[in-house]
């Protein structure tokens, strides 16, 4: 007892006890706190998926099947990823109003929170492209000239060289890209909705996609003016060339006929 009392009176005893208490507290926190946080995140994600499953059962299962495996009325959604759901539902294309050659854009009927829940549920069925972050699709710092080159090479055949859209075969069409949210343009390139091919990062890098978005923002912005004057709808060189041939050449022929008639009349006089 005397030895123990002597140790308690040692000047370093309080410091040793404090260090041991701190070490024990840190060990307990490291052992339990991260697990609690991970468990909370996992629980929240499970609830999000469960809510998305309920929404899916009401609004999507009739066409895509109860397990999203697909039916004769709708393709399988297993492995399409959250980006495909965010695009299709976020632009109002899904749920589809009626069957047809192509599902058009319409008013969105789900809130963004509900869209996120649907996306979480579909993602849980199979890996696929994730919803892009704002930094990925923001046109800030992008190369507009490079974006124009990439767009004309990969997209203009269907969407026209300024993204005004165009007709395809069998009643299908490439929609106008004017006024489309940059996030949805990025997601469309990722997932290839409907008739559009997909452009994964191995084909068009994240920077390439940003450049294309920046180009579309530049040519379709609110304050954009056509450098050549009347743009004729921005439909491109084919339609504008046809306009020049029909009206330009037609006008020249009309002037030539008028001059010939005036000349003939002058000779008779």
Automatic annotation (TrEMBL):
It catalyses: a quinol + 2 Fe(III)-[cytochrome c](out) = a quinone + 2 Fe(II)-[cytochrome c](out) + 2 H(+)(out). It is an enzyme of class 7 (translocase). Keywords: Cell membrane, Electron transport, Heme, Iron, Membrane, Metal-binding, Repeat, Respiratory chain, Signal, Translocase, Transmembrane, Transmembrane helix, Transport. The chain crosses the membrane at residues 242-261. It holds the Pfam family Cytochrom_C. Its EC number is 7.1.1.8. InterPro entries: bc1_cytC-su (IPR009152), Cyt_c-like_dom (IPR009056), Cyt_c-like_dom_sf (IPR036909), Cytochrome_c_Oxidase_Subunit (IPR050597), TAT_signal (IPR006311). This is Cytochrome bc1 complex cytochrome c subunit. It comes from Streptomyces justiciae.
């Amino acid at each position: 007892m005397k030895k123990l009392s002597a140790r308690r009176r040692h000047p370093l005893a309080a410091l040793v006890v404090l260090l041991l208490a701190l070490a024990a507290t840190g060990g307990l926190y490291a052992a339990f706190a991260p697990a609690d946080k991970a468990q909370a995140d996992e629980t929240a994600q499970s609830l999000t998926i469960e809510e998305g499953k309920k929404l899916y059962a009401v609004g999507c299962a009739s066409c895509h099947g109860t397990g999203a495996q697909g039916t004769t009325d709708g393709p399988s959604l297993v492995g399409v990823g959250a980006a495909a759901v965010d695009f299709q539902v976020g632009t109002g294309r899904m749920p589809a109003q009626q069957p047809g050659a192509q599902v058009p854009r319409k008013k969105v009927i789900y809130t963004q929170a509900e869209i996120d829940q649907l996306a979480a549920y579909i993602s849980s069925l199979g890996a696929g492209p994730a919803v892009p972050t704002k930094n990925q699709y923001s046109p800030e710092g992008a190369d507009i000239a490079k974006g124009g080159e990439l767009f004309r090479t990969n997209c203009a055949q269907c969407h026209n060289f300024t993204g005004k859209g165009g007709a395809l075969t069998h009643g299908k069409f490439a929609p106008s890209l004017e006024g489309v949210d940059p996030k949805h343009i990025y997601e469309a390139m990722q997932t290839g909705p409907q008739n559009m091919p997909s452009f994964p990062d191995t084909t068009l890098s994240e920077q390439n996609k940003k450049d294309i978005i920046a180009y579309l923002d530049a040519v379709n912005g609110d304050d954009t003016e056509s450098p050549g004057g009347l743009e004729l709808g921005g439909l491109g060189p084919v339609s504008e060339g046809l306009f020049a041939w029909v009206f330009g050449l037609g006008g020249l022929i009309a002037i030539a006929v008028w001059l010939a008639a005036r000349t003939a009349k002058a000779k008779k006089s």
